Amino acid sequence: MVNKLTIIERYKKKIKLLNKHNKLYFNNDNPEISDSEYDNLKKEILDLEKQNDFLFKLNLNKKVGTSPSKKFKKVKHLKPMLSLSNAFDKNDMKDFISKISNFLNTKGKNIEFSSEPKIDGISATLIYENGVLTKGLSRGDGVVGEDILENLKTINEIPKKIKGINVPSLFEIRGEIYIGKKDFDNIKGNFANPRNAAGGSLRQKDSRETSKIPLKYFAYGFGAIEPMIFATQSEFLEKIKNWGFSINPLSKTVKNLDEIEAQHSYVDSIRSSLDYDIDGLVYKVNDLKLQSRLGNTSSSPRWAVAYKFSAEKAVTKIKDIVIQVGRTGAITPVAKVEPVTVGGVVVSNATLHNEDEINRKDIRVGDTVQIQRAGDVIPQVISVDSSKRDQKSKKYIFPEKCLCGAVTKKEVNKSTKKEDAVRRCLKGYECDFIAREKLKHIVSKDAFNIDGLGKKVIDQFWEIKLIRQPSDIFTINYNKIKNLDGWGELSINNLKKAIDKSKIIELDRFIFSIGIRHIGQENAKILAGFFQSINKFKDLFNSKERKKILVNLIELDGIGEIQIESINNFFSINTNTEIVKQLINQLKIKNFKVQNKKGKFSNKTIMFTGGFEKMSRSEAKTLVENNGGKVLGTISKKLDILVIGSSKPTKKKIENAKSLNIKIILEDDWYKILNL
Ligand code: IVH
Hints:
Shape: globular
Bound molecules: 2-(butylsulfanyl)adenosine
Number of helices: 24
Low-confidence stretches: 63-69
Radius of gyration: 28 Å
Distance between the termini: 81 Å
Strand order of the largest sheet: 2-11-10-3-9
Helix content: 25-40%
Largest sheet: 5 strands, mixed
């Protein structure tokens, strides 16, 4: 026993020393020991761990080999690096295809897709100028990445110079860095999986460290290309393969749902024999012209989807059922289960979705259940083995009150008139449980994006009452953090800097951040375009002014009755308004920059009636916006042009437009204007 304690003592001391030298080296750029002394220290720690399993339980060593650096230069991507939406089964894929056909209005015609494995690694983008690799960036937050060129250059599979003819002068290649499974087995150390190891290695400040780990690269796409010389994704892959890039050999084109399914089953069946981890296949519309017509939503392209392999399943027992309150007040039942490993991860919580789901499956405490975990999705309970049920078990009664004590309600959907399956607490910021979740939303990436203030830290600060409402974030008493676990002078300084930086915020981000239900990123942008400045937005606080404004909002395409009612509900609660007011006082909110895209419809407002032959309404709307115009949802004096599609236009709208002397354009003229 004495021996064990001595080892723990020794180990703790070495970890402390390592942390000190990590800080000196990575953050302060001021090392006190030589590289080899540092390497020896790391080796001593790893050796101690290897010889003494119990040290892992202390969970102290997250640093060896992965020490991230805050020193990489931040660089804005030439084109944002988006993420992919997911599909989990044939039906999801059917939906994906029909959404595309609807958008392009090409019902019935087959669309060709490029099918490629989705490599479970770390994405990186490579920029070649006149054939020479000049920049290499990590994904970062998708808009701004980090300059990791030197580290990327250590990867043999990445060409430093492109050997080929007619290589575009600006050529940006995107791909995935990974570690082969066999290589990973040799270097494992204390990494949980190859993906983490690849990430850790790529972010080494010293590229000599990166070069010690056998990283590999598959190219799968492009960012900026000038001039554009490719017509299809498959042609692009083929060409760059000849130019020396490593392309995944399982890439192929498919023409319909059956071929998609066949390829999916085939790759799934050989998946375990591959030397790299994949978690599904990516399907991309092959024709690049169609890709550009489809464009992107705010987070992912409409022309691609990640079709994930089926979820990993496991059997366990429910110890308890508790409820959780989300930031919109949604009450979610969660099963606390006996810990079980699903797909390499230990799971002890699984969602039960909602009250109806529990009733339908008659899920009870004590039940033996099957759970599944797919990708990053929260594990879920999928079925109950009632044969294993204890005779004395009782039906689960869903609580009617929120954790804050308020009565919860199921709302009735306005258009379907159906009762919602989800119970909600309607207290907004007045409910402590909602307030805490709203804070987590406010600091998140798409909102204030405050580095170092994640969910766990919000929980920590909430518990000690340091932060209870959004404005508290900006008036933190940093002296109170000093003595908390895990906080040191440097991390406090970094937090201060991140918080100060986030005080200057765009109006649309601000509107999204305050967390009004039904107001996501897209709607927040539309609203910011309407209000333009925070001063105008503040008029919503006054109930009379609010009424006047809300009537006008219906004109905005994308904002409907549901959003308007939700805005009204939000600001009708005094606490919400007060909290938003106090938050505004701490910030500098930038006016919304109307993106005056120059184009055929600059400063013009357009409205559509009737369907078009060659395109969907969504595509028509995107075309207007990309050409500098704005689409309106109702006819008023503010409207400049009414475009009449040939299929079932509304007579009344045409008459209204005529009486207001609004310019009217027919479908054929519409195509002519756009040179289609
Ligand atoms: S295409 C707009 N193709 O998956 C994004 N991505 O969730 C286009 N990934 O960040 C991505 N293999 O790092 C694409 N064959 C593949 C991929 C792939 C892995 C990763 C990539 C991206 C993430 C998207």
